[in-house]
Amino acid sequence: MNKIIEKEWLSSNIIRLRLESEVSQKCKPGQFVIIRVSELGERIPLTIYNFDKSNNYIELVFQVVGVTTEKLSKLETGDFVLDLLGPLGTPVEKISGKKVLAIAGGLGIAPLLSQVKHISNSEIDTIYGARNRESLVLMDKLKEASQVIEVYTDDGSFGQKGRVTDNLNNLLAEKEYDQVLAIGPVPMMAAVSEITKMFNVPTRVSLNPIMVDGTGMCGGCRVTVANVVKFACVDGPDFDGHLVNFSELGTRLNMFNDRGHKCVIKE
Amino acid sequence: MIEGISVLSKNKRIEIKELLPENRIENFCEVVQGYNALEAKNEALRCLDCKHKPCVTDCPVNIDIPDFIKKIIDDNLDEALMIIHKSNSFPGICGRVCPQEKQCQLNCVRGLKGDPIEIGELERFVADNATRNYSSVKAKDKKVAVIGSGPSSLACAAQLLKAGIDVTLYEALHALGGVMRYGIPEFRLPRKVIDKEISQLVELGLDIKKNIMLGQSISLEDLFDDGFQFIYLGIGAGTPRLLNVKGENLNGVYSANEFLTRVNLMQAYRGDSDTPIYVGDEVLVVGGGNVALDAARAARRLTKGDVSILYRRTKEEMPARKAEIEHTLAENINLMNLLSPKCIIGSEGWVSYLACDCMELTDEVVSGRRKVIKSSQNNVKIIKADTIIVAIGQNPSPLIRNVSKEIELTKWGTIKVNDRYETTLDKVYAGGDIITGASTVISAIAAGKDAANEIIMKLI
């Protein structure tokens, strides 16, 4: 169980892992797993990037950003992930709109692709933005699944210099999209949602708040959606972007960065 | 040769050694140290072995208490454990967490003129010091799946295993014990006590599957297809109840479940744990039950600042275990009475004050406790806080809906069962907090055991 059967570095700090896992048998698009890599390790949520029921595997794509992803990055093919629970979260509803605009920011490309791949009978345009050329990953997969219309980098090292929202107003005015999907950093999803709201285009976002158990037990992942408190782990992680309180989410994501890990006592 | 105590002092209990408050708030070591052999024997000698045995009747699982106490006097701890095990497989846990003052010790005849017998401490003494080999006669081809690894599931599993039935236990988290693992802190219930009592079930053949969540990773159909004849749902009430006031999502506001899960399950109090925790200098814990006390005491150990418990009623009405109320107040934790949170005020995303309505007690008694209302002057009190922990109860998880649409729920979201613990879905039983809402460890154990007996009657 949870054996790593394939490992690929997509960039200098983004990895794709393929894991043997029964989770593949129950998995639906939009769901995630909680993993723990070591004794006394954290539990962290990771979106299921890809799954294959007949070959019994799931794939995770993650960026090395914290202590747990660092530990996970050290595991090699043949190693096991200590604990893996899933699939968790509410699967996303199937998109039925004729014209879909999918927007990915940074590592949001992985969850976005996992959803885009399952959209059928729709014309899909995609916009993808990342820090620089090196951190644009899975571009070939994105091209396979959609019509990539715009690519942005912060430094202009690939595509256009700028942000995914730079030309969004024009696009929405020009083309009649039935649905927007936006997955990426909180400020990016907030900015996209603000614009699409003006054009009244339904917009789905995928949230990544801090979680502990991932099963609705702790409430650490609570987000405000339409002025109602929701637990992203069970009610989400996908929500209507026009109803999410992004500024609260952004603040909550920084809870332990701001005031850190200061309470530690001797055994 | 151990000397007995004199008749004159028999109305006084033998004192139980505890770590001193000033020392224990520096660590997570178990506070109550328990009796040594001489102390246990002297306490046991105080038992009158009365005719009516109110302790047995008042025990939710009817342990033959006078009988095991006699075995302590006879220095036969192994037999004492055997007697307890006939009714309860988890004396190490129950001796520590049961509200004895409301159960076995409530009507103790010795208590009429003096201190009741310290039954919980004696039960714990036996559990910690006796040894026992476990065996059972295998029943052929009988398989039951038990969902969850909290007290009711473990008790159900224990009872089934003793009847020789194969049991597989499924737990969603990475560690076993349910609320005893994520909720109750080490200083009240050491992990090694939970591990020991679970390992006894493994010796009896319990098959354990962690990281599997019913309704998500597997379905009831999968389990029936795998040959399980019956399924027991002991999935607890794990969803935190929130205040539903403005400002609750500010940073620094935790549900008690989150705070305690970080501390207990994830061991965030240890320097070598990866899970972060923040405890500020002005900690307010809202609630008056055991969970509130556990959260406050854990916070006490993680900050040099002020820790206060804020409760709608007063100390007299607190539903927590009596010994823990005393332990809590000895640990430099303030109790602020007759306050009910109104809203949380913050700045820059972080909590800074809690505004409360002042309350007053009325003479009307509702479900055993005096009702409180807002004070007639409509006073509001503003209290400074940088950490708020909300411990006002737990509800059943709404994820039960993913398990089966055919399992009927009550209006409280608990699972509906008949008096044989059968749900509305054939061959599926349920017990513990998922049918009652959040309650005690021992009532969950009693339900698990009774449900197991119902299953055994059907199977054998």
Structural write-up:
- Chain A is 22% helix and 32% strand.
- In chain A, strands 10-9-8-7-11-12-15 form a seven-stranded mixed sheet, sandwiched between helices. A six-stranded antiparallel sheet of chain A has the order 1-2-5-4-3-6.
- Chain A has eight helices and 15 strands.
- Chain A is an alpha/beta fold and 267 residues long.
- Chain B has helices spanning 21-24, 37-45, 54-58, 65-73, 77-87, 91-97, 110-113, 119-129, 151-162, 179-182, 191-203, 220-225, 256-265, 290-300, 322-330, 400-403, 433-436, 441-459, and strands at 143-147, 166-170, 207-209, 230-233, 239-240, 253-255, 282-286, 306-310, 334-336, 339-347, 350-366, 369-374, 380-384, 387-390, 394-395, 428-430.
- The chains are: A alpha/beta (267), B alpha/beta (460).
- Chains A and B meet through strand 6, strand 13, helix 7 and helix 8 of A and strand 5 and helix 13 of B.
Segments of chain A where pLDDT lies below 50 for 5+ residues? none
Most extensive interface: A-B, 47 and 54 residues
Order of helices and strands of chain A: EEEEEHEEHEHEEHEHEEEHEHH
Shape summary of chain A: globular
Supply the helix-strand structural class of chain B: alpha/beta
Number of helical runs of chain B? 18
The class by helix and strand makeup of chain A works out as alpha/beta
Q: Which range best describes the helical content of chain B: under 10%, 10-25%, 25-40%, 40-55%, 55-70% or over 70%?
A: 25-40%
DSSP helix count of chain A?
8
Number of strands of chain B: 16
Number of domains of chain B: 3
Radius of gyration based on Cα positions of chain A: 18 Å
Per the CATH scheme, the topology name of the largest domain in chain B is FAD/NAD(P)-binding domain
Instruction: Report the strand count of chain A.
Output: 15
Measured as a percent range, the helix fraction of chain A is: 10-25%
Outline the low-pLDDT stretches of chain B: none
Shape of chain B: globular
CATH homologous superfamily annotation of the largest domain in chain B: FAD/NAD(P)-binding domain
- Across the major sheet of chain A, the strand order is 10-9-8-7-11-12-15
Sheet with the most strands of chain B?
A: 5 strands, parallel
CATH class type of the largest domain in chain B:
Alpha Beta
